[in-house]
# Entry
Amino acid sequence: MLFTLVLLPLLGAIIALIVPDNRLRPLILPVVATAHTVLTILLLGSDRAPSPEGWIWLDPLGQITLLSISLLFIVCAWYAVGYLAYRRERSNRVMCICLLICLSAMTSVTIAQHLGMLWVAVEATTVSMAPLIYFNRNARSIEATWKYLLICSVGIALALLGLLFLAYSTYLAHHEATLLLGQLLATARELNPAWLHAAAIFLLVGFGSKMGLAPLHTWKPDAYGEAPGLVGALLSGGLVNCAFLAIVRVYQVCLASGAEDRFFQQALVGMGLVSMAFAAVFMARQADFKRMLAYSSVEHVGILAIGLGLGRGALFGALFHLINNGLTKGVLFLSSGNIHRSYNNKTTDVVKGALTRLPWSGGLFLAGFIAVTGSPPFSPFISEYAIVSSAFIDGRHLVGALFLVFLAIIFIGMALTVLPMVMGAPPDGLEPTDYRDRLLTVGPPLLLMGVILVMGIWPPPFLVSLLHNGAAMLEVQP
Amino acid sequence: MNAIADQLLVLVMLINLVMLGSSRLIFCIRAVAIQGVILGILPGLIHPFSGHLAAITAGIILAKGVVIPTLIIGAVKKAHIRREVEPYLGFVPTLLLGALFTALSFVFADKLPLAPEHRDLLFVPASIATLLTGFLLLTTRSKAISQVIGYLVLENGIFIFGMLLTEALPTMVEAGALLDLLVGIFVMGIVINHISREFSSIDTSRLRALKEE
# Structure
């Protein structure tokens, strides 16, 4: 069943390669995505044992990530049908193929229990997203693609070096190098501490640059700003989650070692706070609303890192935030893509009064803004509250206070961009565009918004128990 | 066999320095290809023969020695660029830095807690020196193709370290890593083509429209 989950998107990619018609081809996306989501939901209930050699296992942490990716992808896939209908002038073959390959690679990340296999899958997500950032084929998008490709490739290469260091520490411990997570966790206390320390640093830098933790986030505003909204949604809700899962795997090893855990947690909290500070500074007076969303993504990977670094009660919040951030970013990027298409511009000088011109997309963008800044009744409020309250309970007052201050600054900064965009009257003399809010471009983000609202008011019990199971895997074992 | 391996590793480090000192792109690509072939031969010298080993050797030589260089040379020919003209840092300073880094990597490797059987081999210093050379190329060169070469050299440095631990990376993972590298370079090649068409140059210093105002 797990293999079906990985191979199904690849089969879809092959069909997308063969289908000659630009109009029919995007329909493959929702078909594959729906099947993927159905399989994912069926898998959530079952408690399968790891594969015999311990390579493949969908553990609770993987299930949480897979659920968030699958939900986001199905929404993006339906949206893609509506979006690509406006872009008939250019071939969407590469777009469809790369989206499906990326889905397959993201799925492999969630089921991989061999860190080498995990690395290969993360690298595959990086490469398969690059052509999508370049979908608009102009000078700006090529610059963004180049920066993304080079920084992420070098970052991931450093992560590989970190993995080799980790393997070397197992080699020194018992003369047999391994990267299987199960064996690593079982023997973590015997690992050579010096090499483990080096491995933790390189893995944090490597996967951190992929995730966009400051100060390794420099590619993010460019890539998110120039990519189509749909690709931005998958970058900030899919690839970020995969990179976070990779960091969680390293965290598991550090925790089991009993020696490296303090350092790794402190490094995560530090990088998380720096990310939030960067976001707070650059979010203010940001004239390009897609770049603003990129900084919001930097903020939220910071929140994820802080939650993981704090440990204990914050772990539940961090894992819940993984789902919430992905889905909320989906709403924001998809609705911002609609606004961009309608105004043919993405700066706040031109984009004004979106609520009047596009009531649905403008409303969704506004609701997404309220949700992403952590306001009730939406689910990011619950996860952020869990993290910050846990910080104060554990006596980390400074971290908690800084967290709240940055959230407040970011709220104000983002409001200063978002409110003028959606409120007021559209400027006169806008060039007319053919974009109108339709079911396929508004329905998917609306559905996602509904999911975020429901999770905020009444988190489904199966999800809560899944999150608790995941958090239990990251607790210190006595 | 270890003596031969060490001599090949010295050759790898010499190639690093040659690349730092040369402005001709095609020459640098050939040099990185030779480095790749040496990397393919090395595992066979230090590990006993096995099917896994043969697969790795064939894969590395094919990917790093043949396919990747062909891809990049294709990109160079299409872009009509032969030389790295305006590096951010001159060739002589980078060459000196490279030599300094190579020397330092020997000092550093000596201090690392290595397994006794790896202590007398040149793998670790060669790996660090090659890594640092890759970083130097990445940061000091302005042509997109030079940066790709830098990335390849960086990868080679990581591969050299990985040779001490072939059993940690089973054939499937190794093949996956090579395939990722291959596709990555392929995509980079395409992007370079588009950069040269869009800007009529592959100078990445022209890529500066995207920044905070």
